[in-house]
Design goal:
Blueprint: E1 30-36, E2 40-46, H1 54-57, E3 59-64, H2 71-75
Antiparallel strand pairs: 1-2, 2-3
The protein binds zinc ion.
Length: 90
């Protein structure tokens, strides 16, 4: 019942379908971290070049958990580090 295809009216967000661009160097930022929080999933993007200091230009994207269609794929990423409160599988 919670699968997106069962809810055609529910808009979901797939972070892998969007690109994050840096306003400073005009380059695309790379997803470097994925973290789950209680109500949301947190994606961290950084510039991977010598132009920007990631500490200055890092982008944090927060997606409400119930709208996030990217979780499964994000969990397969090598840099996914499970932390925080553990939740039962959906
Ligand atoms: Zn940049």
């Amino acid at each position: 019942m919670t699968e997106p295809e069962d809810r055609p009216d529910l808009h979901v967000i797939d972070v892998f379908m969007m690109s994050v661009k840096c306003g400073q160097c005009d380059g695309y930022q790379t997803l470097v971290r994925f973290r789950k929080e209680a109500e949301k999933n947190v994606y961290t993007y950084e510039c991977e070049n010598d132009v920007c200091d990631p500490n200055v230009t890092r982008t944090i994207v927060e997606v409400p958990k119930h709208l996030d269609n990217s979780t499964r794929r994000a969990e397969e990423l090598p840099y996914y580090a499970p932390e925080g409160p553990r939740e039962p599988p959906e």
